[in-house]
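pls read this protein.

:::
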Amino acid sequence: MWFKLLITLLFAITSIGALIVIITDDGDSGRKMAWLLAIVMLPVVGLVLYILLGVNWRIHPFFRKHHKQFTDLFERQSDERTRRLLFEEAQFDSIREEFKPLARLLADCKLSPQDSTDFEIITKGSRKFELLMQDLREAKESIHIEYFRFGADKGGREIRELIMQKAREGVKVRYIHENFANIPIPASYYDQMVRSGVEMVRFTSPKQNILTLITKLNYRNHRKVVVIDGRIGYTGGMNINDNYFHEWRDTHMRITGKAVASLQYIFMDSWITAGGKLDRPLTDYFPACADLPWPGEGPEGPKIQRGKILQIVPDEPEARIPLIQMSYEWALHNTRRYIYMQTPYLAPPTSVLNALKAAAASGADVRIMLPLNVDSKIMRSCNCGYYKECLEAGIRLFERQGEFIHSKTFVMDDYLSCIGTANMDFRSFAIDYEDNVYIYDEETARQCVGIFEQDLEKSREITLEEVQQWPWYRKFYQKFIRLFAPLL
């Protein structure tokens, strides 16, 4: 009897404590209500899940010191040239006046916009695979890889075999492993990489102290970053997986020039923070920019953007403010003509949803393209749960037919383009480690509009009348799933 009473008392105290933490948390109200609902509906399970997955560690002093080892190393080893390359104030002068406030906001991550950057926007996975394999083969000094998913299928194995070969040849290959996202793949698959000479650190490791492990349990490294010899960079929506190489429609970038330094900085931060080591001074990994030839370039070759201004922005739960979410809100509040967006998942926080509705109400042409065939049935229902509210506000929704579209992009007012890793949902905006590329350029914006219009040819516009005619039970289920959108 005393044992049952003690257990009941402990549960009651823990529950009250959790409720107080949730209520006093300054985070998104929708997310807090979702957790309260989960705890009420599933008292024991919901409480355990909240302690493990729901606490907002952004406010925890320990988490805010998470990157101190890297920042101390950078402070000790960086020289004037490297600091100027990454943080130079003069680059803001090249951006249109009305977009400078956004660039200043995004610079809260410390990284400034960088000019003299060339890039190719990649919309076919086969092209990304071809380019990446060629660049990996030609690597001379270092290969840095940070991926959400590193598959064990045909394409993944080919890339794995190549980087193992490069490691045996003496190239420094470093890989940050997101172990939770790759649980279905046996550990031996990655252990073989280590035995070949690939240096690997795990984003979340059981060997970490208990506080670090608990605070990172719900967080995923959703970034897709490759940096080769400090001179060639890749980022965007495509993982290393045959779905991305052959089956899905996604958007990625290959980058050369000054902005590669930002990708290198992001990788080095993750690498040192996760426990990785360096064999040379940090500044050796930030070489001077080189004018590199572009694979396949020619009259019939790919469209290469030359000498553009890019701002590469990392975001993560320990950041001072949610930069990527705020960039969406800024773009929506400041668009005057149009904003075209692509996302596989539509589960925006209330502030982003209100910004979407405000942009449409102000007369801007707001379009969101989503997949008809989603890789998750739950997320398909969650997406649809927002359709009626968006359509009533004047937002135009398009469902792309055929292959799953995984792109995370937007373009606005013939100037600002964004290509990145972040979905339009709570997890990307508040929980996961992401990186987005912001491009300040008219020519690139026109290219991105063209890509959107090409996808429109395979899309069907959804109407309010159509959504209103869905069966009541379907709409009820969608609304029910939407209640838990902040937890998905």
